[in-house]
Predict the structure of Zinc finger protein 347.
Amino acid sequence: MLEQGKEPFTVESQVQIARNPDGWEWIKAVITAS
């Protein structure tokens, strides 16, 4: 998935994304780009 040190992708950020619908659009873009 994401390389370590490339993006601050932590459990905490996942929780924030889960609480923010727009966050899923960001994570989809990240997954698509990688």
Q: What stands out?
A: The helical segments are 11-19, 21-33. The CA atoms of residues 8 and 27 lie 12 Å apart.
